[in-house]
Design goal:
The structure is a homodimer. Chain A is an alpha+beta fold. Chain A contains 4 helices and 10 strands; from the N terminus they run H-E-E-E-E-H-E-E-H-H-E-E-E-E. In chain A, strand 5 and strand 6 form a beta hairpin. The longest helix of chain A is centred in the middle third of the chain and has 11 residues. Chains A and B meet through helix 2 and helix 3 of A and helix 2 and helix 3 of B.
């Protein structure tokens, strides 16, 4: 595939996430496939009982995923509470996705991929890329969360640890964490159903210095759709 | 050991953490062994280059541990950033303890125990004990953090996921998390050296419905000391 086909976005220091919401209030037309451009983030309002499907369009892309209670964003999807609630490291189809108030706020309906997702690594951020040697601004998932929320009129009060869809960072028996390419394939999708009104944010992770978005280290777009 | 010797505290709905700081400003006499009563929390100001040693007095007690930058508490010890920085699930002697700005804020100097600590489970809280069937107030580490900070005049802006010293909740190969008693022994201690001025909070975890504080499910006191 060429870079054009992959829609890699550009690492030019300009990230339009702040100015390109899916709609001013974050409500999209239901049933349309909506693009998360490479290296960018998008937020969407998901009403109770609606489902959201996130698509790994090109198969090698990690998508950071957050969910906030629309009525009270101090409640949010929390990896550390979810692991305790499930007594399991990674959620799988059939599970609830658990908030910091220890209740399911999404139901994990379906996963066409092998189920390799990460719950233990922070979203990449300015400090991460400084540590990797970047001197100029590098797109990052934390800023994408902030900007995607701002774009629909909301502000991130804190930055929860994300559910890193398709991120393949296994913890080995000796405790070492490896940074590996996804094992997903093009078109793989996960589907979640909202159990309450939510604000969802997603970032097509711009990591291009560590092979979590594939050995070619070329971040790509992802897509999502809502069903009522 | 009898319950008296163990100093189990009392599950009577009254937790004096808010009213019994180690001192009004959180600075203790250096070199004194300070008690964290069973089921309670304590906060202490630790200056750069000082060390803090936390003692598992009776050997079976989990101690939740938090650290905040004294000059800017928006920076704090962060499990999800630490795991990424270290590429390791659990820190060990010789490591830095990493903040959400991806820098070491403590140096892990020494560990007399087998090194089994948890980084992936949220502090217990009101919702946790509701889920375990409690109807009345149950002491919990999250409230202990809040109250221990209030006791020295500070407020918790958010509740980071704690470093759970001596908590033995291994992640099995199939992703299952087990809730097991500590493998530490009476008097085991960990020592950290501050790399900047910090506020430290600790909670002698009051969990008595799951055997993480020993098969007897009797939470006990812990101790700590500062060295200049």
């Amino acid at each position: 595939m060429t870079a054009d086909v992959l829609d890699q976005g550009e690492a030019d220091g300009h990230n339009p996430t702040r100015d390109e919401p899916i709609s001013p209030d974050g409500r999209p037309p239901s049933g349309d496939l909506i693009r998360i451009p490479a290296r960018q983030g998008r937020a969407v309002r998901l009403l109770a009982d609606e489902t959201i499907t996130i698509v790994n369009t090109h198969g090698t892309q990690v998508c950071d995923f957050w969910a906030f209670n629309a009525a009270d964003p101090r409640e949010y999807l929390s990896m550390e509470h979810m692991r305790a609630y499930l007594s399991r490291f990674t959620p799988q189809a059939g599970d609830g996705l658990i908030s910091n108030r220890r209740r399911p706020i999404l139901h994990f309906v379906e996963d066409s991929s092998p189920g390799v997702h990460d719950t233990c690594i922070a979203a990449c951020d300015h400090h991460r890329y400084l540590g990797l040697g970047c001197r100029d601004y590098h797109d990052n998932c934390t800023d994408n969360l902030r900007m995607a929320l701002l774009a629909i009129g909301l502000r991130a009060r804190e930055i929860p640890s994300p559910l890193n869809l398709w991120m393949n960072t296994p913890v080995r028996g000796d405790g070492r964490i490896e940074w590996l390419p996804p094992v997903s394939k093009p078109g793989d999708r996960v589907t979640f159903r909202a159990l309450t009104d939510l604000v969802i944010a997603m970032s097509a992770c711009p990591q291009d210095l560590v092979p979590i978005n594939g050995l070619a280290m070329r971040p790509t777009e992802a897509h999502f759709e809502l069903l009522g």
